[in-house]
Task: structure prediction
Amino acid sequence: QVQLVESGGGVVQPGGSLTLSCAASGFTFSHYGLNWIRQSPGKGLEWVAVIRHDGSKQYYRESVQGRFTISRDNSNNTLYLHMNNLRTEDTALYYCVAFYGDYYGHWGQGALVSVSS
Amino acid sequence: EVELTQSPATLSLSPGDRAVLSCRAGQSVSTSLAWYQQRPGLPPRLLIYDASKRAPGIPARFSGTGSGTDFTLTISSLEPEDFAVYYCQQRSSGPPTFGQGTKVDIK
Result:
């Protein structure tokens, strides 16, 4: 059974940094591309970033390009999202999501990030 | 970015009713469209992918149709656990995008 457990959320001031982690189990981690998707009341569901199964390529939504970095450790079955220069509009629940084919088949419970002064 | 517009925003129905939800894309997405269900306090759950294929474990009362710009999710007979918010999502071009959701609530 696929399990994805996010951690590392919290409250941070604008301009600050935060790193989210996602511990995975129940599947062959190194075979799957992984995503971060966020959800906020104002903007709904937004895809944030994706990383290939082997970590060779990463893609980002435009608004986080240059500020966020997605990475993975296939030896420890862990996905990361390093977030720098955070803005108030980054406030959201961040989900770690594994693909089912080309779609978002497996979701964690989410980590809450609040950017506020 | 491909914009997805869902209608109606809210659908008030009773258990046993048929629910028909719409998703319209701002440009053609072929059949590269999925539907998700989100119950309160839980993450979204994949229901339908490639416009009409049911994900594993999804009951047959859920069906998806459409291609190009117009898509429909139909729930043939609402069960109590089906009252939730439903989102469409496209992966055809540009960054993946989601619709704003349709809430199916109890009349």
About this structure: Chain A has a mean pLDDT of 97. Chain A touches chain B through 17 residues (CB under 8 Å). The radius of gyration of chain A is 13 Å.
